[in-house]
């Protein structure tokens, strides 16, 4: 029981906090200062969807693919496994995750045109996404499940949480 709790909750939580900490430390000091300023000027409001429409195509594609993958991922976790809908949605989900990862390589606003630590998650997503399908097709359901959960948590939850940091686009859409 304790081992299961450790593996399923405590270690992923510590990993998430560590990744967020490293991402914050790798940012330019001016970027961090703008984030603090944005958090101090927080004003509740309805989401400003126009901000997304003003972004370059790569960002719009990235947001659409990530949001769709998040919804389908939740459906996959809650729905029955091994049936045809799970398989079809799984292929769609992997495709959306690959689109999300690939489009992120064209988004480099955090480090003034350079790649950031968040892009490591994109590389991991591009490599691990096909492995999820490979594991399922080989009948290794445990590996398939663990890889899918890891990718969902890392590629959508952790990376998604980082997009809501003060001053970033999703922060501005919902809170700025």
TrEMBL record:
Any single Pfam family the record assigns to this protein? DUF2306
Q: Which UniProt keywords apply?
A: Membrane, Transmembrane, Transmembrane helix
Membrane-spanning residues where? 57-79, 88-107, 113-136, 148-171
Name used for this protein in its record: DUF2306 domain-containing protein
Q: What is the lineage of its organism?
A: Bacteria, Pseudomonadati, Pseudomonadota, Alphaproteobacteria, Caulobacterales
Extract the InterPro entries matched here: DUF2306_membrane (IPR018750)
The answer on whether this UniProt entry bears the keyword Transmembrane helix reads yes
> Can you tell which superkingdom this protein's organism belongs to?
Bacteria
* Coiled coil start-end: none
């Amino acid at each position: 029981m304790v081992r299961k709790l450790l593996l399923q909750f405590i270690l992923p939580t510590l990993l998430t906090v560590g990744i967020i900490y490293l991402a914050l430390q790798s940012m330019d000091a001016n970027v961090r200062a703008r984030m603090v300023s944005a958090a101090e000027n927080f004003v509740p409001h309805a989401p400003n969807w126009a901000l997304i429409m003003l972004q370059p195509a790569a960002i719009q594609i990235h947001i659409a693919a990530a949001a769709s993958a998040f919804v389908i991922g939740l459906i996959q976790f809650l729905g029955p496994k091994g049936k045809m809908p799970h398989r079809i949605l799984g292929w769609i989900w992997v495709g959306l995750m690959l689109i999300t990862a690939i489009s992120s390589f064209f988004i480099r606003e955090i480090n003034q045109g350079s790649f950031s630590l968040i892009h490591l998650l994109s590389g991991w997503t591009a490599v691990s996404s096909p492995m999820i399908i490979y594991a399922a097709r080989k009948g290794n359901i445990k590996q398939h499940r663990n890889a899918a959960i890891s990718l969902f948590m890392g590629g959508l939850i952790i990376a998604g949480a980082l997009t809501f940091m003060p001053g970033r686009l999703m922060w501005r859409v919902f809170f700025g």
